[in-house]
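Hypothesis: this fold can be encoded by more than one sequence.
Test: take the structure tokens below, design a sequence, compare later.
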């Protein structure tokens, strides 16, 4: 028996050389940097110049409550995302720390969705006021009028404060302005069920009224025969839109209320308008079975007052 290494065969030598070559090639590929892909661009018609795709806007849904809390808030958030998520990035929060000048500047509009009570500190109020002054948009839904009762500027922004309300019940809403993008799809006489607010003052004259509640069709919610329930106005450099509807969860499944909400937020966000629909296509009365019969399990037997008075709604 021989000891020591036997001479390698020619075949083994060739295999070893081939393996070494493969290792070197692999190392070379691994060291090579991959160039980043070019960003997607579009070409401006007629110019041949590439143009970046338009950036999506952002909306902030704010639903912090320091008093009564509405069970319909999650339904409202869901509806807003369904209605506008194809055009906007929608952020929803109850954290008032987002009210800084730099953060608010990211948003086309801020939606106060059934907020209640004192929810912003002095610095946050100052930054929100600055946001509106630089062209920001505000959309208030239902209990947004039961918010910041001790901040006079906010009362002017929203238009009026909540005072009281009767039981949830069906009522007739008379649509005064059928050209605004939040009401042009509505019938002149809109019958629906909700919790109807009485406000501390009539906002008419300070705002542009979109719809008026017919007090003769409900019990316990009178404002002397002139009862605005939805309105808008340009305010100190920004835009403000408000609707008194939206207490019930069912509101956010009603086709007409959803379109009303969508149009109001789009107006507040300063979105480009589209050709108006033919409002006459909606029959007088305008109520579907769902619109006319919706109720809420939280219906109460007694008239209640707002968070300023400390009684739950």
């Amino acid at each position: 028996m021989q000891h020591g290494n036997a001479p390698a065969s020619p075949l083994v030598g060739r295999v070893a050389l081939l393996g070494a070559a493969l290792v070197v090639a692999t190392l070379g590929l691994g060291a090579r940097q991959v160039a980043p892909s070019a960003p997607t661009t579009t070409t401006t018609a007629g110019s041949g110049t590439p143009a970046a795709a338009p950036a999506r806007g952002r909306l902030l849904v704010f639903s912090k409550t320091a008093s009564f809390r509405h069970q319909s808030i999650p339904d409202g958030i869901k509806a807003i995302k369904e209605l506008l998520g194809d055009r906007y990035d929608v952020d929803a929060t109850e954290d008032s720390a987002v009210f800084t000048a730099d953060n608010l500047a990211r948003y086309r509009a801020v939606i106060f969705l059934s907020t209640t009570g004192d929810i912003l500190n002095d610095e946050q109020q100052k930054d929100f006021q600055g946001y509106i002054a630089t062209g920001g948009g505000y959309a208030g839904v239902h209990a947004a009028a039961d918010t910041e009762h001790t901040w006079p500027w906010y009362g002017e922004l929203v238009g009026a404060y909540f005072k009281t309300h009767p039981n949830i019940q069906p009522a007739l809403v008379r649509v005064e302005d059928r050209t605004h993008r939040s009401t042009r799809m509505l019938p002149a006489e809109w019958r629906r069920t909700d919790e109807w607010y009485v406000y501390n003052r009539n906002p008419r004259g300070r705002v542009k009224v979109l719809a008026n509640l017919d007090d003769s069709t409900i019990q316990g919610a009178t404002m002397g025969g002139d009862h605005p329930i939805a309105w808008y106005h340009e305010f100190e450099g920004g835009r403000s839109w408000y609707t008194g509807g939206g207490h019930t969860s069912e509101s956010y499944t009603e086709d007409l209320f959803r379109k009303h909400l969508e149009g109001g937020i789009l107006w507040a966000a300063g979105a480009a308008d589209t050709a108006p629909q033919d409002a006459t296509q909606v029959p007088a009365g305008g109520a579907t079975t769902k619109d006319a019969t919706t109720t809420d399990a939280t219906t109460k037997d007694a008239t209640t007052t707002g968070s300023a008075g400390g009684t739950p709604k």
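Residues 173 and 213 are 5 Å apart (CA to CA). The chain is about 25% helix and 20% strand.
Hypothesis status: open.
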